[in-house]
Specification:
The protein is α+β, with helices and mostly antiparallel strands. Helix content is 57%, strand content 12%. It has a 3-stranded antiparallel beta sheet with strand order 3-5-4. Strands 1-2 form a two-stranded antiparallel ribbon. β4 and β5 form a beta hairpin. The protein is globular, with a radius of gyration of 19 Å.
C-alpha cells in the first residue's frame, strides 16, 4: 500500500481517546473526570472533549451523582452492540443492524475521534467480510489518506485488522475487541451480582 500513517496530532488524539474509553469500559460503575485525569494524565478539558465525542457517538453516557460531578460509563446501546457482535461472530455472521448516531453528530464530522468512530462502525456494520479502503472511501466521504491513517491507528490499538486480498489491496475487518469488551462487562456484572448475594445472605441469613 502506498498510503503511510503519519505521527501527527490526529493519531495521538485517537490513541488518547481510545485509552480513555478502555479505562471506562474496564470500570465496574464508571469513572469521574478526576479519576480519568489521574489515570490518563491529560488535562480535564482534553479528556472532557473526548468524552463528549464518545457521548455523541452513543458509546458512553454521563450519570450525574451530585451538583458537582458524576460518572462516565458505557451506554446500554454500546454494551448491547458488543454482546450482539459476540453472538453473531460465534455464529459466523456479522452485526445485524446499523449503528445509529445522535442527531447532533453532524456538527462533529471534523473531529478526528468522531471520524474514527464512524469508520469503525462502517466496518462493524459490514459483517465478517469487512470493507476495502475504496468502499470506506465511498461510504464515509473522507479523504483516502485520512481513512488509511485512522484505520492503521485502530489496527495498532487492536480494534480493527487488515486482511490481505492480493498484493495491492486488503479488507478491513473487526478484531476481537468487541467480544473482549462483552466478556469483560459480563464478568463485571457477575461479580456485582455475587457481591449482592453475599451481602443479602449476611444480613438476612438466607440465600437468594
Amino acid at each position: 500500500m502506498s498510503y503511510q500513517p503519519s505521527n501527527g496530532n490526529h493519531i495521538k488524539t485517537l490513541k488518547v481517546a481510545a485509552v480513555i474509553f478502555q479505562y471506562i469500559a474496564a470500570s465496574d460503575n464508571g469513572l469521574s473526570l478526576g479519576q480519568l485525569q489521574e489515570l490518563v494524565g491529560c488535562s480535564k478539558s482534553a479528556i472532557h472533549r473526548h468524552l463528549l465525542t464518545f457521548m455523541r457517538s452513543n458509546w458512553i453516557e454521563f450519570v450525574p451523582l451530585s451538583d458537582n460531578g458524576g460518572l462516565w460509563r458505557l451506554t446500554h446501546c454500546y454494551v448491547g452492540m458488543a454482546f450482539e457482535w459476540k453472538r453473531q461472530a460465534l455464529n459466523g455472521q456479522g452485526l445485524g443492524r446499523q449503528w445509529m448516531f445522535n442527531d447532533n453528530n453532524k456538527l462533529e464530522d471534523n473531529d478526528t475521534v468522531f471520524k474514527a468512530i464512524k469508520l469503525f462502525h462502517l466496518v462493524s456494520n459490514s459483517g465478517l467480510n469487512g470493507l476495502t479502503l475504496d468502499e470506506l472511501l465511498d461510504y464515509s466521504g473522507y479523504r483516502r489518506t485520512t481513512i488509511y491513517r485512522l484505520l492503521r491507528t485502530w489496527e495498532s490499538l487492536g480494534w480493527l485488522r487488515a486482511i490481505p486480498v492480493d498484493n495491492r489491496s486488503e479488507r478491513w475487518c473487526m478484531s476481537t475487541k468487541l467480544v473482549d469488551i462483552a466478556h469483560q462487562h459480563e464478568n463485571q456484572r457477575r461479580r456485582m451480582v455475587a457481591k449482592l448475594h453475599e451481602e443479602y445472605e449476611q444480613v438476612t441469613g438466607e440465600a437468594l
